[in-house]
# Entry
Amino acid sequence: QVQLQESGPGLVKPSETLSLTCTVSGGPINSYYWSWIRQPPGKGLEWIGYIYYSGSTNYNPSLKSRVTLSVDTSKSQFSLRLTSVTAADTAVYYCARHGTMGGRIDPWGQGTLVTVSS
Amino acid sequence: QSALTQPASVSGSPGQSITISCTGTTSDVGAYNYVSWYQQHPGKAPKLMIYDVSNRPSGVSNRFSGSKSGNTASLTISGLQAEDEADYFCSSYTSSSTRVFGGGTKLTVL
# Structure
């Protein structure tokens, strides 16, 4: 079945850019929407944004000015860039799939903890 | 966009039923039948339990059910079991074509 795996640095300095990649295996990247979702330690889930395999995107308005999502269908990967990070961006970052814009988010990656600290 | 409103905690004894509410607005929960529920055990990724308000993915126990009335969706767990103890999050599609999550509810099985 489809599996998602996040990868990237676990530590980022304040004011720098957080970059993560999600690799999709066991299924196609085409014809699906792909989301990034984060969870600060001990807190709830926050949707960051999604990208369609064609490259169209939509972002959480609260993060829109700092977020860029991209997709590389040849590598079955999609990526997240979050600029000007602060300690408030410390969280477990999950990538996930959904079949339609509003449809169920499933499956999810295992998540990767990114800590923002100098 | 504001987070959907969930109770911070609920509890129940084994065998009992509990219901978790998820309140949104006419721009999200009330506007679409795109409400889903996720279960999260400590240190684990969220797991889809209910989608499109009331549909269960294959493999999810029929003790889990979902419903919606107006701007409020609900998750009901019947015949509580110890393994149900977890955090539960609701999510909805919005009129801006974005997603919003609830703040989460901690379920304690007494």
